[in-house]
Amino acid sequence: MNLRTLPMSRQSAQQSPTQMESTLVVLGPHNCLKLLLFFLHILIISAATDLLPKEALPTKSGYLPVNQTTNSAIFYTFYEAQTPTISSSSGLSQTPLLIWLQGGPGCSSMLGNFYELGPWRISRTQNGRHLTLQPNSGSWNRLFGLLFLDNPIGVGFSIASTPQDIPTDQHTVSKHLFAAITAFVALDPQLFKSRPIYITGESYAGKYVPAIGYYILKKNAHLPASKQLNLGGVAIGNGLTDPVTQVATHAANAYFSGLINEKQKTQLEKLQNEAVQLTKNANWSLATDSRNALLNFLQSMTGLATLYDYRRQIPYETSLVTEFLSQSEVKKSLGVNESMVYEECSDVVGAVLHADVMKSVKYMVEFLVKNSKVMLYQGFCDLRDGVVSTEAWVRKMKWEGIDKFMEAERKVWRVNGELAGYVQKWANLSHVVVLAAGHLVPTDQPLNSQAMVEDWVLERGVFANQKVHNLSLDLQGVI
C-alpha cells in the first residue's frame, strides 16, 4: 500500500541551514558521524512535512456561506468519484452525489472523512510513534461523488460568526444545510446541478438527515426547477431519530443480550420511564439529562469500554483525527486558517442543541418514505442506537406501506460470498443490519458498508426495487 508516515513532532524540521552549519563548527570533526546521522534525520523529517500528500487532497474544499448577513459558513471537503457510474462524456454530471453529516450533536464530519468512509484514513503505526495516512479501499466515493459538511456551524472547521448564529433546532439546521448545498452546486452548475443527491449520516445525524431531506422536498415545491435540489434519497446509520421510543429499549436490549440481570433491568427501566415522562411533558433539557444518566448507568453496570460497540476493549480512536487536523500543514492544504483550533466535537454546539436531543423527527421520515428512498442501517454491536431501538420506532411509523414492510422477507445479505448481514425492504424503505460492526459501521466494515450504499443507490442485489404504485407528493406545510 501507499503509506504515509507522519511525524508526531516537527520541531527538528524547523532548524534552518544556518543553525545546522553553526552546529558543525561547534562540534568539530570528531563528531562528524553524529552530525551526518542528525542531518539525515532532518532530511527524512523534511521530506515528510507534506502531511496531506497531493494524491490525498480533496477535489475541492473550503467554505459555503449559510447566511448572507454574517460570515457564518459551513466547511466542506469534496471528493469526486474514482470510477463514475456513467462512463459517457456527461457521466460526472449524472453521477450520484453522497453528502455525509456527522452526529453529536456537535461532532465534525471530518471524523467520517478521515476515520470512516473517506478515500484516505488516519491510523497509528504499530510502534505508536507516528500517524499514517493510507488509502481506504472501502471509501464511499468509489462510484459516487462524496461531500463532507461540518454541520452545524461552529462544528469542526465551520464558522459561527456569533454563538447566537448556532442553530437551536432542526429547522434552522436544515435552513443552513440547504443554503450550503445550494452554494456547493453553484460552484459548478454544469457539473453538479442534475446529479441526484443522497443525504447520509449517523448517530445524531439521525435527526439532521431526515430534517434536511424533508426541508428539500418542502422547499422544492415553492422553487423554480432551476433552483431546486435533486434529492434521490436519505440513509441513516445507527441514528437517534425518535428518542422517546428509542430510550425505552435499552433495558430489554441489554438484558436479552446477557449483559445485565433482572434486578439491573428493573433499575434501568425506572430510569427509562423517567426519561420518557420528561419527554412527554416537553421538559426537553431535563429529558436529555435523564437519557444521559441512563446511558452512563448502563455503561457502569456492564463495565464495557464503550456502548458504541460492546466488543471493543478500548473506545474508537477518533482522537487520531484531531491530532492530524491540528497540524498547520494539513489545515493550510485544506484551505483552513492555520490559527483555527480543530475540535472533534464542540461542547458549545452540543450545549446549544441540548434541549433538541429528545425531540422526534419520525414524522419527517414518514414524509420522506412516501416521496423518496430511505435506508436505515445499524451495526449489530451498538448498544446506544442499534438494531432494537431502530426497529422499535419503525414499526410505529404512520405510513400506508408499514404493514407491507413488516411482512416483507428479511433477506440474508452477502458480500463477495461472505455473510454481511440482513436486509428487509419494501417499496422505498430499506432496513439493514450490518454484522460485526458497532456504531461506526464504515470503520468496522469498510467494504461491506461500501457495497451496501452502492447497491442501495443503484438498486442492485437485495436492494433491487419492486414496482409499486407512485405515491402522490404531499408538499404542503411549513418550510
From TrEMBL:
<protein>
    <recommendedName>
        <fullName>Carboxypeptidase</fullName>
        <ecNumber>3.4.16.-</ecNumber>
    </recommendedName>
</protein>
<dbReference type="GO" id="GO:0004185">
    <property type="term" value="F:serine-type carboxypeptidase activity"/>
</dbReference>
<comment type="similarity">
    <text>Belongs to the peptidase S10 family.</text>
</comment>
<dbReference type="GO" id="GO:0006508">
    <property type="term" value="P:proteolysis"/>
</dbReference>
<keyword id="KW-0645">Protease</keyword>
<keyword id="KW-0964">Secreted</keyword>
<dbReference type="InterPro" id="IPR018202">
    <property type="entry name" value="Ser_caboxypep_ser_AS"/>
</dbReference>
<dbReference type="GO" id="GO:0005576">
    <property type="term" value="C:extracellular region"/>
</dbReference>
<dbReference type="InterPro" id="IPR001563">
    <property type="entry name" value="Peptidase_S10"/>
</dbReference>
<dbReference type="Pfam" id="PF00450">
    <property type="entry name" value="Peptidase_S10"/>
</dbReference>
<keyword id="KW-0378">Hydrolase</keyword>
<dbReference type="InterPro" id="IPR029058">
    <property type="entry name" value="AB_hydrolase_fold"/>
</dbReference>
<keyword id="KW-0121">Carboxypeptidase</keyword>
